[in-house]
Structures are given as C-alpha cells and as structure tokens.
Amino acid sequence: MKTTSKRVALAAAVCALASTASVQAASYIVQTHGNALSQSQLNAIAAAGGTVRAHLPQIGVAIVDADDGFKARAAGVSGLRSVTADIRMQFDIPDAVVQDEGAPNFANPPNSGEDDTRFDLQWGMKAIDAAGAWNAGWRGAGAVVAVLDSGIVCQHSDIAPNLLPNSTSFVPGESVCHNIPNAFNHGTHVAGIIAAADNAFGTIGVAPEAKILAVKVLSGVTGSGEFAGIIQGIVYAADQGANVINMSLGVTDGLPKGGAETAELINATKRAVQYAQSRNVLIIASSGNDARDLDHDANTIAFPAQLPGVLAVAATAPEAWGHDLNGADLDLPASYSNYGQSAIHLAGPGGDFDYPGNENCTVAGLVRPCWVFDGVFAPGGFVPPNGNLYFWATGTSMAAPHVSGVAALIFGKYPGIKAQKVEQLLRAGADDLGKPGKDDFYGQGRVNAAASVD
C-alpha cells in the first residue's frame, strides 16, 4: 500500500475500513429442516412476533424481521433447524485513485491502437491475453455474469449497454443504481473489468459482449453487508439465469471460526451456494486482502472465498509498469493478497500500489506517479449530469472479475456448457506460475483468456 500522503496527493478517496461484526437484532436467518416453511410454521413465526421479509423455499431459509426476544419465542416452532441473529460484516474496500475522464483485429495494451481510448491503461488485459480470445471470435455474447456487490452506476457509458433491467438490490433502503456523485463505487469497477462495452469510449471488459446482472448485497455508502443480503443475492442470481456469480467480497481480517451462531449463518450461505451450483452457476470470489496464509490460519475463514464450491482468486500485479510497458513482469504476487495452496484456486490481475517511488510516468497520454499505473483501471463512478468517472484500484476484488470475465467468454463460446467443465477449462488454460503445479500464490495458475477458450 502507498503511504497516506501519496494517496491523498492524488485524491485517493477510498481506504479499507476497520473490521466489525455487530449483531443485527432486527434481522434473523431462519433455517428449516426441509425446503420450505409450512403455513403452520409461518403462523407460529408471526405469533412469535416475526415478519417474514423473504422466504427462500429453494434452500429452506427465511429472512425474518423481529425484536430482540424473537429467538427465544421461536425456539418452540416445530421443524426449524435454527433461528440466528444476522450479522453485519465490514467488507474490505480497495484503495482507489480517481481519473476524471471522459470488430477489428485486436492487440493488447499498451500499443493496442484501440479506439476505446483508455484500453491502453489496462495492463491486466495484456496479462491474460484478452485480445487473443477476441481475435478468435469470443467476446462473451450470450453469457450473464451476476455481480454481487455494492450496486452499480447504471448510467455509466461503459456499463449501461450491457446492464440487465432485472438488476436489483437486497440492501434495505438502497437502490441497485449507485447515486452518489464523484465517489468510487466498488461494484461498478468490478462490473467494468468483467464486461465494459467495446464502444469506442473508455475501457473494455474481458467479456465486452456479456451481460451484467447487478445484485446489490453491500451498502454503497459503508461497504458493509449482512448474510441475509448475500444469501438472497446468490439465490436470485441463480434463478435469473446467471452463468457466473462474481463475489468480490472479503470480510476484513476474515470471519472468526468456532461460534455456533456464525456456523449457522455460514451453513445458510452454503445452502445458497449449493443451490446455485445445482442451477449450473460458476461462483468466483476474491480471496481477501490481508496478506494472510490461509493454509495456517485456523481461527478465521476467508468469507465467502473459502466456502465449498467457490473458486477463490488471488491477485497479481506489476511493479512500476509505467517504466517498461512492454517488458515488465505483470505477474508478481500482490503484496496484500491472501495466499495458501489449500485455499487459492486461480490468480488474476489485481494491481498493487506498493512501488516505493513517486516519480512520474506517462501512459496512454496520462502523466501520473508511476505507482498509479500499477493499479487496475476501470469504470467506477459518475459526475452529474452525464459524466463518467474511472478509477485505478487494487485488490483481490479486481482479480476475481478478470477470472469471471474469462469464464463468461467460455460460457459464450459453448452455450449449455456445464459450470464444472468451465472450471476445468479455466484451470487447464491458466499459465502455471511459481512452482510447477498448484502454488501458494497462483493456485493452478494465472488465468489466460486465449488459452481457456482455445
């Protein structure tokens, strides 16, 4: 990470927030032994003072609003596995630096010749050889990627062409459309990496013809979220026909293990993941930004990355790419990325602001301190009334959508393909970095778009 003084000098507006986990007395996760609440159970929950906000018979879960005494009063309801007070978790927000900005034969950055004028800032596309996949004819058409995140800037020129109208929010009181001007929006940045449109403007996503289903599960103001939103979001995305679910979500410092209450909340989330898998959805998540060895951390879980059935992605980055645009190593392990051979499945470009120098470099006509260009450049906000904002950001949050974008390319190439086969192609096509075979930092390799669709 850069020092605070360097970030402020370039209007870096977003920092990682402290870890918190506070009980939300007004919200409960109710799990049944079967798949659905019966009418008698619904009546008993109402008699105990509970109001069912959401009933998910697909996974045997209900979200119930009630007062502090509800759990004790509902203890006698027959057929319930558990009644657990929901937890509000603080998710990690990446550092970001703002940039106020506004079917050919493709080449990768930095000398692509692209008419999307900021594509040459996207070193991550070179790292994964996105142009190689596009030149073979695969751009994600027909694929749907659900972005479970903090909402999205619906009017952004790089987002709007691919944004589905059934995008929605599971954060009470907040719309899916991010409406805070001049501010970084995490979900927009993630979605832009996946599927920013190839429209002669701004940036290009890994799968520029895939569709984005934005599902808001984190507050666009605080970055916090509850299990209820994540569980509902996974089920909704699966039911809406998503091929891929991207969760660039990571609880700061991990989710503590051991408590019975937390175990029940995790179990409910596992049910949602299993349901999505049954609907042929591939689920991809960021591994977290705590620089933790997940092989030897017995006290916490990287949530949701370490849930069974979720592909966990670590982050790679260059160092001072601006000094050597054509020869720099783009695949260094990012300084902040969680790692561990048992936990990491794949790696993707996540960027890093770790380069210690503060001298300027020039890339794609922009002059900035060289460390800035090591971040991942993508859409991230808006300026009223009709302006677009782009940001450099770093994190495993940026690595996961590179992998999700490649998965979308595969789903687009092979309509009806099984998610398990897509995962196999991602692993087989990845570049084997680090030690041969599975590696602590790269898993089974850094994803490669051209090789995965070949």
TrEMBL record:
Q: Keyword annotations for this protein? A: Hydrolase, Protease, Serine protease, Signal
Q: Which PROSITE patterns match?
A: SUBTILASE, SUBTILASE_ASP, SUBTILASE_HIS, SUBTILASE_SER
Coiled-coil spans in chain: none
Q: Does the keyword Ribonucleoprotein apply?
A: no
Q: Where is the Peptidase S8/S53 domain?
A: 140-445
Protein family (similarity comment): Belongs to the peptidase S8 family.
Q: What is this protein called?
A: S8 family serine peptidase
Give the organism, scientific name: Lysobacter stagni
